[in-house]
Amino acid sequence: MVSAATMLDSTILDYLKRDRLLQEGHFVFRSGRHSGALVDRDRLLADPQAASRMAYALAKQYFINKVDTVAAPSIWGAGLAQMIAYFLDPKAKVVYATPLPDGGKKVADNLLGLIQGKRVLLADNLIISGDTLTWFDQEIEKHKGEVIGICTLWNATHEQIGGHTVYGLLNPLYPSYEPDDCPLCAAGAGAPTEVNY
Fold it and tell me: Into which CATH architecture does domain 11-194 fall?
């Protein structure tokens, strides 16, 4: 079972801030939600040492959940899924969605055996609107996988997707808020900076 909050390794946080992969301020995302943090989604996993520490922290939340497969809906999440699966014991398999020429995505037919009848943890680097994970959750369940949870480095949307709890590694320190509930707005922080994701 995922705990309500986890203390993040201070070396991870220091690294993210030092290389401006995590900036503090007042931001509004495509989902409409506000936060005091902006995570650089494109460079977040560029350093394998920092990325592996974050993946271990995520995997640790699911050590007792008997995960068979870690599945990612995007290319950004695929690398993270590989590292999370490596840190689970026994080691989990990895499945990811591949893009189609028409702009859609699907799980390759030869990977479906890693989903059917398996306990599946969904993982992505960031969750911004929840639309991609909502689709992917339905895709995994359509192929008879049992989704046991959703994890990410940071979640900018709701705490549940498809009835599954979303665990965001950075969320205990940097929650996201509906605009009417944003403490930064209430404190007079001014208009938030718009983020294009």
Answer: 3-Layer(aba) Sandwich (3.40)
